[in-house]
Amino acid sequence: MTVVAPRLTVERRLLREHEFVIALDEVGRGALAGPVSVGAAVLDARCARRRIPEGLRDSKLVTELRRPELALRAADWVMASAVGSATPGEIDEMGIVRALGLAAVRAIQGLGAVDPFAPETVVILDGNHDYVSPMAGPGLNVKTIIKADRDCASAAAASVIAKVDRDTHMTDLHDETPMYEWARNKGYASALHRAAIREHGLSRHHRASWAIADAPTLF
Known about the structure:
The protein has a single domain (9-173), classed as Ribonuclease H-like superfamily/Ribonuclease H (Nucleotidyltransferase, domain 5). It has a five-stranded mixed beta sheet. It is built from ten helices and five strands. The protein is α/β, with parallel strands linked by helices. Residues 215-219 have low confidence and may be disordered. The chain is globular, with a radius of gyration of 17 Å. Helix 3 (67-77) crosses helix 8 (153-174) and helix 4 (88-94) crosses helix 5 (96-109).
């Protein structure tokens, strides 16, 4: 199967009317344990004139071995980047959709100098549902784009940066609870992860409100 490289067609069109494009993409939505995270990447006209980092793709299309180096090059390419997360406790308390919005707001806040509410800023959000605006408040100019992480280079950059950040966090948790094999499955529903839950129960890093026993095995 031929993998189409992301382009800057959408970003360059938006930059004709706006000074900044913030791209957002989430990772960890379907995991049983660990945070849900949202990556944010900012482009301006100068960034959009630069060559897209070689090999940049949606994080799901990049091997785990190659992601860290690619994330570094993606972060160097964009004007600014950040990752925001919502904890398993916050996911249990408010549900996954609002937790995604909270993580996105934290990512945007982490960008620093760029004012996300200014008229010169537009936000690209991967998917077809705006989960950000209800948590951010009025004034955010959000454009949802299905498969933005596949087609838009800025969203692909946000995807890879967020994926590496969350994977690193889950790997760091492995030593605390090695029975769940998080260094390998990153909190997703592998067969070994589910078997460990049946044997040891849930840890404080699991999403306790989820029907974990019935979760499908993803790999």
